Amino acid sequence: MATVARRGGISLPAKPSDSWLTKISRTPAVTWTKETASSTSVVVGKLLKSTGKAAWIVGTTFVVLVVPLIIEMDREQQLNDLELQQASILGTPPN
């Protein structure tokens, strides 16, 4: 095995030939798989980001529009129940 002299008097071994792992990692199938995985991760990231934005829009719309409607409907139901209770106490027939 040849050695390469470096400054400082230390000799390092020459770079060995590519290992079997390096050879396998350079095959077209592995390269294609790496590229596909990378592209898939980018698409999934964008999908999650847009899904998060959509969830935020739906959530805030629900809070701003639907929750006050539910509260108002509950108040109206309580008022109707109170009127019905008063009418039954006073003996007048309910409407």
Automatic annotation (TrEMBL):
Topology relative to the membrane: Single-pass membrane protein
Segments crossing the lipid bilayer: 54-71
Gene Ontology BP terms: intracellular protein transport
Source species, domain of life: Eukaryota
Location in the cell: Mitochondrion outer membrane
InterPro entries listed in its UniProt record: Tom22, Tom22_pln
Gene Ontology CC annotations of this record: mitochondrial outer membrane
Keywords recorded for this protein, A-Z: Membrane, Mitochondrion, Mitochondrion outer membrane, Protein transport, Receptor, Translocation, Transmembrane, Transmembrane helix, Transport
Pfam families the record matches: Tom22
Cited CDD domains: TOM22
Family: Belongs to the Tom22 family.
Protein's name in the database: Putative mitochondrial import receptor subunit Tom22
Organism name: Medicago truncatula (Barrel medic)
